[in-house]
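Trying the structure run again after the queue cleared.
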Amino acid sequence: MHLWFTEKQNDNFAISYRVNETLHTETTPFQHLAVVDTVPFGRTLVLDGIVQTSVVDEYVYHEMIAHVPLNTHPAPHRVLIVGGGDGGTLREVAKHPAVEKATLVEIDERVIAASKKYLPEIACGFDSPKAEVVIGDGIKYVAEHKNTFDLVIVDSTDPIGPAVGLFSPEFYRSIHDALRDEGLFVAQTESPYFNTDLILRIYRDIAGIFPLARTYWACIPTYPGAMWSFTIGSKKHDPALVVPGNIRDYATRYYTPEIHRAALAMPRFLADRFRSLPLK
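Done. Tokens:
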């Protein structure tokens, strides 16, 4: 008998993974948490029935949410990560030579504990001397730290449950206030195929708060549609103007200077939607 895990996207679409073994399950104060060993993607973190990351392809997501903004800012000394309890984004941020301190604020400490035990190759970011971990509400933390960070990374789950507030214009305004004069932030903004309206709404919200907004994308096999988006709000620096020769060379498996530029090129079906979007 074969065991399968199915992630339901909507009434008409689901993704199924053949499972070798269920390694861990628990109900935390915030969500249902599971770690399953899948045949195609290895050990996989699942929150409230939705795949968050897997050891096979996690590097794509974590490198792209971290290195595009890190290499856009000329001196990202102080970085805040909201969410990201698996530690992968923290691992990538710590690679950047300019980063002096990376603070990760995670509301659910059980995500961190499970990731350290079952996903050590991802959670190794917690071992960095640059890392500071805060267990608490990221929205509250951001509001209490004005003019503090060069870069804020919102590494959230989908906009359901404890993450709903991380997709609001009020939160983006709070991030704006938490950033220094040359600061920028990035958030994961879901699937261009299944969440186009959400991406456009987020882009419009960010463009109404920050002088510059950019959406970019990457191919991540475990996520619905395999194409995933990220959106930047910046006070000054434009990721599209980064000179490839100025990008630092450090160990990555997906991100390169060429990928940095290419990720900002919108497929026509998305570009047409963005062009028709009223920004005021």
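The domain at 3-54 is CATH 2.30.140.10 (Spermidine Synthase; Chain: A, domain 2). Worth checking whether this holds up in the mutant runs.
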